[in-house]
Amino acid sequence: MSAVGILFRRELGAYFATPLAYVYTTIFLMLAGVFTFYLGSFYERQQADLMAFFNFHPWLYLFLVPAVSMRLWSEDRRSGVVELLMTLPVRNFELVLGKFLAAWVFTGLALALTFPIWLTVSYLGDPDHGVILASYLGSWLMAGSFLAIGSCMSAATRNQVIAFIFTLVTCFIFIVSGFSIVLDAFSGWAPTALLDAIAALSFLTHFDAIAKGVISIRDLLYFVGMIVVWLVATSIVIDLKKAE
Amino acid sequence: MIELKSLTKQFGNFTAVDNISLQVQAGEVLGFLGPNGAGKSTTMKMLTGFLPPTSGVAVVCGCDVMEKPLEAQRQIGYLPEGAPLYGDMSVGRFLHFIAEIRGFRGSEAERRVLQSVDRLELRDVYHQSIETLSKGFKRRVGLAQAILHDPKVLILDEPTDGLDPNQKHQVRQLIQTLSQDKIVVISTHILEEVTAVCTRAVIISAGRVVADGTPLELEQRSRHHQAVSLVVNAEIDVSGLRSLPGVADVQADESGRRVTVFPANGQAIFPHVQAHAQAQGWEVQAMHVERGRLDEVFREITIGGGQ
């Protein structure tokens, strides 16, 4: 097994070594349920789709993903383990990737546990399963982007609370950049190209497209690009900050 | 072989390591001595590839640590300062993780783990999670991790810090048995450790090498080297001792019964002192030649402003 695989296994194991993973998953599932059935009016909509469920995912991730990502690097930097890791014969990006993948698979597991809602909607009506599958994929990719941002923030500080807040703020900016509240502020004076660029940076624009069942290369590239860019940033930040 | 060539590390305006050049051969146990903040740990961090030097190079077994970090790191076993470990893992799982990262698989990984567990007597805590262990056990897990792949170069940052006297003894014995065909570099501020395990001592102060030699050579720089201490039954008149050949100074404690005679330039004055004591008819209870005091040399070099 490669170094990434070994690191991945250790990190994933660490999630389940403490009650944290179980508490986190429980909270995620409860909130997902509350959002879908109360705020999303799942029954009242009388439609055999999961829009009510997926529409709230960006907001759910906004608070729950930073809670997962905050300890990715901060904890190891605080305890000094980072020195041990970085003097083992492993490359920097293998460490970054191993940790990220473990966190991503962990959120994927939490997401997969929402399957009863899929069963429910299939029982009640005849939904488009392709769209639902695409939405799950989009949701997971979005979680990955949030995590990659969180990984970079976590590498920048030893303090988990600071990592949490910085991740939340950065992700929030990336969500609302597609909203008219933000875009209106620019629309009066900024050129359309800039306006489009700001809107194109938003998680929502790309997630909505995938959630409608349209998996375009552009949207996939956006999420994959986000993950790659933030992971590269993580690798640079950890290299710069390790001496402190 | 380890080679440091004009190694320098600056943090902003502060120079932590200032132009250090050293060569260490296989079989040597090098003790890095120095006050806190002298640059011992920083030097070790550059040697292991954790920190990039501002200028200069570190070469381990023919590999430039900056250019071929992985090749160099494969040859190195490293115990960082404070022995950081994954607290949430059990000792066995942690060592297996290290074995796998080091490239060992299956029964070979198992064999390596058990071997280092035995060497550091960790069998009783094998299944225990690391955060529940005492400081001494944690340090030993850190050492087990460092020797697991039988490295050519062992770099140990304060390996006996926080251990009780028995454990210290054990670790020193381990270092001695390991050192036959390896290079061992330890940093410490426990001076007795240097005399006990090191074949060579390098004292650094403010980022520079201020002394380099065998522990014996360093001891010889001490004022106490070849000094004669004697304890007598009643207060004596020491003025006669001063006029003996080769004697530089004589000091007596408050009771006047415990006297130290210092030689000039490390000359052997024991026979003269003994003869004098006999001639004066002193009732001598104890009398011995001192080897020299490393702590004195250390203080003199690191506070007294260089050589």
Explain briefly what this protein structure is.
The complex is a heterodimer of chains A (244) and B (307). By secondary structure, chain A is mostly helical. In chain A, 80% of the residues lie in helices and 0% in strands.
Main features:
heterodimer; A: 244 residues; mainly alpha; 14 helices; 80% helix; globular; B: 307 residues; alpha/beta; six-stranded mixed sheet; 14 strands; 27% strand; elongated
Can you describe this structure?
- The complex is a heterodimer of chains A (244) and B (307).
- With 244 residues, chain A is an all-alpha fold.
- Chain A is built from 14 helices and no strands.
- The mean pLDDT of chain A is 88.
- Helix content of chain B is 34%, strand content 27%.
- Chain B has 11 helices and 14 strands.
- In chain B, helix 4 crosses helix 5.
- The longest helix of chain B is centred in the middle third of the chain and has 14 residues.
- The mean pLDDT of chain B is 88.
- Classes of the chains: A mainly alpha (244), B alpha/beta (307).
- The interface between A and B is medium-sized, with 22 and 30 residues.
Strand and helix order of chain A: HHHHHHHHHHHHHH
What is the number of beta strands of chain B? 14
Assembly category? heterodimer
Number of helices of chain B: 11
Distance between the termini of chain A: 32 Å
Percent range for β-strand residues of chain B? 25-35%
Beginning-to-end CA distance, first to last residue of chain B = 27 Å
Secondary structure: helix percent of chain B: 25-40%
Low-confidence stretches of chain A are none
Low-confidence stretches of chain B: none
Largest sheet of chain B: 6 strands, mixed
Outline type of chain B? elongated
